Amino acid sequence: MACNVPVVATDVGDVRDVIERTEGCTVCTPNSIEEMAAGIEVALAHTERTTGRADTQHLDSKAIAQRIIDVYEKASGLKIPAKPRQSYQ
Question: Where exactly are the structural domains of the chain?
Answer without folding.
Answer: 8-76
